[in-house]
Amino acid sequence: MGGQRPAGLNIIMHPSLMNRDQLLEWIRVLLVELFELEPEGIGFETRIVEDLDLDSIDAIDMIVELQSYTEERIDEDVLKHVRTVGDIVDIAERYLAPRSQV
Fold first, then answer.
1. Which of 6, 24, 26, 70 could form a disulfide with 95 if both were Cys (CB 3.0 to 4.6 A apart)?
2. pTM score
3. CB of 48 within 8 A of CB of 83?
């Protein structure tokens, strides 16, 4: 993506300052912009493969975008367990936590 954010990601606050529901909304926008999905029905329990019809390449694109915000590499072992949008929110929450909380 060359450092450019998708159009819908003009965020008011950095994701590290968001609560869980705000992170879900941010990830929903990210999914819509990156993969041209409909936002309705994207929630914590939405399954990445079965419900959104995304594949492993799409998941990599998503993680690369998340890493651009975390400024650190997300552990591959963590990624192996991603099955739902809620799992992505968990990763975002963990890796975007303000450094003072880590």
1. 70
2. 0.78
3. yes
